[in-house]
Amino acid sequence: VVASMAHLQEEKLRLQEEVLGLQEKLTAQENDELSRSLQLQAQVETLKAKLLEQAQEISRLRSELGGTDAEKHRDLLAAENERLRQEMKACEGELRELRRQQQAPCWDCAHLQQKTNRLAEVELRLKDSLAERAEEEERLSRRLRDSQETIASLKSQPQQIKCIIKTVEVESAKAKQALCESQSRNQYLQEQVGMQRQVLKEMEQQLQSSQKTVAQLRAQITMYEAELEQAHGQMLEEMQAMEEEKNHAIEEAFSRAQVEMKAVHENLAGVRTNLLTLQPALRTLTHDYNSLKRQVRDFPLLLQETLRSARAEISQAIEEVHNTNRELLRKYRRELQLRKKCHNELVRLKGNIRVFGRVRPIMKEDGEGPEAANVVTFDADDDAVLHLLHKGKQVSFELDKVFPPQASQEEVFQEVQALVTSCIDGYNVCIFAYGQTGAGKTYTMEGTAANPGINQRALQLLFSEVRGKAADWDYAISVSAAEIYNEALRDLLGKEPQEKLEIKLCPDGSGQLYVPGLTEFRVQSVEDINKVFEFGHVNRATECTNLNEHSSRSHALLIITVRGLDRSTGLRTTGKLNLVDLAGSERVGRSGAEGSRLREAQHINKSLSALGDVIYALRSRQGHVPFRNSKLTYLLQDSLSGDSKTLMMVQVSPAEKNTSETLCSLKFAERVRSVELGPVSRKAELTSWPSQEQLEGDSPGTAASSSRGHTSPSPGQLSGRAASIRRKLQTSG
Ligand code: ADP
Ligand code: MG
C-alpha cells in the first residue's frame, strides 16, 4: 500500500509538472497573440494614413472640379471616411481594451473565448467596412465613367472647354492611378486579414486541444485521487485488521500462558508434596548410608577374619574329602574285583560261547527256477528258531539268535556291540563268521563301503567308547591283520606278506602267545582304519591270482588290541578283539577236487574241525582243549580260553540248491552251541552262586533257552583258574 501511495504521489507530481508546462505553453501563445495584435495595430495605422491621403486627394479633386456631381460624391466619400475613422477609433479602443486584458494575470479560458469573440466581431466589422469601401469604389468608378462621358460631351464644346477637359483628363488619369494604388493596398489588406483569420483558426484549434488535454488531465487527476483515496482506505482497513489480529494473538498467547502457568503451578505443588514425602526417605537413606559406611570401614577386618576361618574350614573339608576319597578308592577297587568275580561267575553260568545264525537274501546269482527257491523259514514268535526244508521235511534248529535276510548290518552289530566293548574292560573276544562260500561271511565281517560290517563298526565303537572314558583312562588301540592259508600264517600288513610267521610262547612265563614279526598299527581314527584295511586288501590281492577264490580258501583275521591305563588307580588292562572271516566250510570231494585244490580243502576242513573241537572242549570244560590241532586255534588260544568270549556267526544261504551245505552249517552251529556246561568240578569255588549253577546243572537244555536272545557281554570262566592268570587285568604296581 505504501509503495502504491508513493507511486501515486510520483504520478501526481508528474501531472503537476505537465500542467505547469501547459500553462507555460499557453503563456507563450498569448504572448504570440499580443505581438500579432500589435502588428494589426500597426497595419490599422498605415491604413489610417492611406485613408487620410485618399481624403486629401479627393478634396483636392473636388476643389479642382468644383461643385459638380464629383463634388457631391467627394462629400459623400468624406462622410464615409469620417465614419470609417470613427470605426477605427472604436477598433483602437477595443485593441487597447484587449491589451489591457492581456496584461491582466487572468488565465481563464472563458475570458479567452470572450476575447476571441470580440476579435471575430472586429473582423466582421472590418469586413463590412471593406465591403462598403468596395461598393464606394464601384460607385466612384461609375461616377468616373459618367464624368468621362460628360467630358466627352463637353469635348464637342468650345476649345476652352476642350482644354479644361484635357486637364480634367489628365487629372482623372492621376485620380485613376491613385485609385489603382488604393485598390492594390486594399487587396493586400484583405490578404493580411485572411492570414490573420487562418492564424486565429489554428490558435482556436490549439486552444481546443489544450482544453481537451487539460480536461483529460483533470479527469486523470481525479481518477488518481480516487485511487489514492481507495488505497488509503484499504490500507487503513488492513491496518485495522492487523491490529485486530495482533490483539487476538496477544489474547490467545496470554490465555495459553495462563493455562501453562496453571499446569506448572500444579506440577510445582506435586513436586513440593513429593519433596515432603522424600525427605523422610532421604533421612533413612542417609542413615543407611552412614551405617553402610561404618560396615565398609569394618569390612576388611571382618573379611580377614572370615577368610581365616573359611580357610581353616576348607582345609579341614579338604582333609575330610581326601580321607573319604581314599576310602572310596579302596572300596571301588574292592568292588571292581567283586564285580569281576561276579561277572566271571555269570559267564561261567551262562556259557561264554554264543552262536548266531544269519540268513542272506536270495540273489540274482542263485539263478532261477526250483534251484533258487527259498527253503529257510522263521518262527514269528521266536527269533532263535530257524526251519529248513530238506527233502520235503522241515528241520528246525535252535540257536542263540537268528537274523533273517532283511536284518540290516546295524541290527546285527547291535547284538554284537556289547561283546566288542567288553574288550575295553580287558576281555579277549573272538567273533567268527562260519559258512559255505557265498553265504555272506565277508559281507557280515567287512560289509560294503556304503554299508560296513562288524570290523569297521567295532573299531568306530571302540573309538567312541575310549573317548567317553578319556577323563580317567588312557587308551591305545592297535590293529594287526593276518591270513591263514594252508596252515601257514602270514602278516597282511607286513613288508613281506609272503613270509610265514611262527606262533611262540611269551618268554616271560605268563603263558601268553605272541607272533614275532606280526605288524601292529596304532589307529586313532576311522581314516586310519580305512587305510589299514586297504593296505591289507592290497597285500592279500598281490599274493594270489584270484582274490575271491583265495579268500574263500583262507582264514582272514583282524586283531584289535585295546590297552588301557586308569590314571587314578594305575590299573592296566589289555583286551583283544579277534574278528575272523573263516574259509568256506563246503565239504571236500563234493566237486571232486584234486592236487592243490584238494590239499587246500583238507587244510580248511582240518582247521574248521579243530575249531569245532576246541569250542566243544571248552564248553564241555574238558581238561584238555586241543588248541594245537590247527594254526587258527593255536593262534587264538588265549582268546578262546579262560573268561574270553566267543561268538560264532553261522552264515547260510536260503537257496534250495545250497540246502545240504546249509544243513551242514546249521548242524555245526547246533553242535557247538548245545555243548552242555562241564562237570561241577569248580562248584566249591562258586560259593556266591550255588543255587543257579545247581539249577542249570540239574536241568540240561535250560542253559540254551536261558541264554537265548542274550545280548550283554557273556563273561568267562572262573577267576581262580589258570587261564584267568592270562587276563589282562594288571595293576601298574
Ligand atoms: P562269503 O564271504 O561267505 O563267500 P559273501 O559275503 O562274499 O560270501 O557274500 C556273497 C554275496 O552275497 C555278496 O555279493 C554279498 O554282497 C551278498 N550278501 C551276503 N549277505 C548279504 C546280506 N545279508 N544282505 C545282502 N547281501 C548279502
Ligand atoms: Mg568271503
UniProtKB/TrEMBL annotation:
GO molecular function: ATP binding; microtubule binding; microtubule motor activity
Top-rank taxon: Eukaryota
Sites where the protein binds ATP: 435-442
InterPro entries the UniProt entry points to: Kinesin-like_fam, Kinesin_motor_CS, Kinesin_motor_dom, Kinesin_motor_dom_sf, P-loop_NTPase
Residue stretches of biased makeup (Polar residues): 702-717
Record membrane topology: Peripheral membrane protein
A GO-annotated cellular component: kinesin complex
Annotated region (Disordered), positions in chain: 682-733
UniProt organism field: Charadrius vociferus
Places the protein is found: Cell junction, Adherens junction; Cytoplasm, Cytoskeleton, Microtubule organizing center, Centrosome; Cytoplasmic vesicle membrane
Gene Ontology biological process terms, A to Z: microtubule-based movement
Residues in Kinesin motor domain copies: 352-675
Family indicated by similarity: Belongs to the TRAFAC class myosin-kinesin ATPase superfamily. Kinesin family.
Protein name: Kinesin-like protein
A Pfam family of this chain: Kinesin
UniProt keyword annotation of Coiled coil present: yes
Coiled coil (residue ranges): 5-157, 200-252
Function: Minus-end microtubule-dependent motor protein. Involved in apically targeted transport. Required for zonula adherens maintenance.
PROSITE patterns to which the protein is assigned, alphabetical: KINESIN_MOTOR_1 (PS00411), KINESIN_MOTOR_2 (PS50067)
Chain intervals with Basic residues compositional bias: 724-733
The entry's keywords: ATP-binding, Cell junction, Coiled coil, Cytoplasm, Cytoplasmic vesicle, Cytoskeleton, Membrane, Microtubule, Motor protein, Nucleotide-binding, Phosphoprotein
UniProt keyword Repeat present: no
Main location: other
